[in-house]
Amino acid sequence: MARHHHLLLPLLSLLITVVVVVTAAGASIDFRADLNHPYAGIPLSTTETTARAARASRARAARITARLARAVLGSKGALSSADVPLAPLGDQGHSLTVGIGTPPQPRTLIVDTGSDLIWTQCAARRQHRERPPLYYDPGRSSSFAFLPCGSRLCQEGQFSFKNCTGNRCLYDDVYGSAEADGALASETFTFGDHSKVSVPGLGFGCGELSAGSLVGASGLIGLSPGTLSLISQLSIPKFSYCLTPFAERKTSPLLFGSMADLKKYKTKEPIQTTSILSNPAMETAYYYVPLVGLSLGTRRLRVPASSLAMRPDGTGGTIVDSGSTLAYLPETAFEVVRKAVVEMVRLPVANVTVEDYELCFALPGGAAMSAVETPPLVLHFDGGAAMVLHRDNYFQEPRAGLMCLAVGSSPDDFGVSIIGNVQQQNMHVLFDVRNQKFSFAPTHCDSI
């Protein structure tokens, strides 16, 4: 793996003052922000964005599988880079505009429930300043400071690679489709669209994207349960979001603290709740939920419960992911679902290859997917909660004349089931981190 820490040397000389990160642990952090659509402002057609998002979802699923494989196998083995297809990180999730520094520099960060590190590209050298929308400049902030090697975040943070040089905590993180390196630092971050909340001393990564691309974003903001995430650093007890339909490209509400309360907002159906699980093999980087079965219409599918369960070694299980567009199921479960869909959707299976989709139907001449009726796909969780997915939550139209299943397959051995963005659109979902509960309710997201 290539190292690029020499890029940080000019940055390391900017400031000599080092402070220990000060977090808002125990304080009430309540605010609302509006998430940008992954393709907001990008001149692509709906079919083009759908195809790109599907490709990015496959890359992300491969990355998650590789991460679990490394955690389980350790030095005994891992997936090769050939198993992790490239896709821009900007294709994989919604983004949030935040203020970084004093005075605040507005920068756009990709929101990811499957990552913990908050990081942004830093203007370490003068030539970077010609791109101010993307690069944050620590030289223009009075509140920036590097974190020393002995800081808690440096000691406890999980990275692909970590090193200390000149008492700076240097890191390298691999995302499967991208690689970022930098130095841990602390800074004041300002959040919120309707009212501003400033958080001093937030730990983050200041560095470079050394491989891959971000498609117009500056960096990433992690919302996972991991040590370095915004949720963990600020001890935020709960957060929620409600994703507007993918094809509409509208903003989506993201709510933190006391504002993340599904009972405060009008839902189309009752609120349902299940548990959030921990992974025994690794520091939990994802929000696992206990998926126990699936139905198509009123028919319960014969999906083996063992194919959905998390195993004692940490493989398997189901995550709710903000960065995937498509859903994924292990091959055993996927084949049962595929067969049932073919039987119940009365359309001919398309005889063309559609990249990144494993099942497509040929629409009647001139018809759109909106004219087709399909039975709901239901996700059953432990405790009785059931997420009902209607046509637009499990089918997509990647090109005219084709209706494709927005569910793919992952390997049975290390594969994890993923509930993606298509499944979550117009669904208000809440992560009660303190009580380890996951709640959801169908909602008109643009009305929140």
Automatic annotation (TrEMBL):
GO biological process terms, semicolon-separated: proteolysis
* UniProt GO MF annotations: aspartic-type endopeptidase activity
Please list the residues that make up the active site: 112, 321
- List the InterPro entries: Aspartic_peptidase_A1, Pepsin-like_plant, PEPTIDASE_A1, Peptidase_aspartic_dom_sf, Plant_Aspart_Prot_A1, TAXi_C, TAXi_N
- The residue ranges of the Peptidase A1 domain are 94-441
Q: Which PANTHER family match?
A: OS07G0603500 PROTEIN-RELATED, OS08G0469100 PROTEIN
The protein depicted here goes by the name Peptidase A1 domain-containing protein
Q: What is the protein's species of origin?
A: Urochloa decumbens
The organism that produces this protein has a lineage beginning with:
Eukaryota, Viridiplantae, Streptophyta, Embryophyta, Tracheophyta
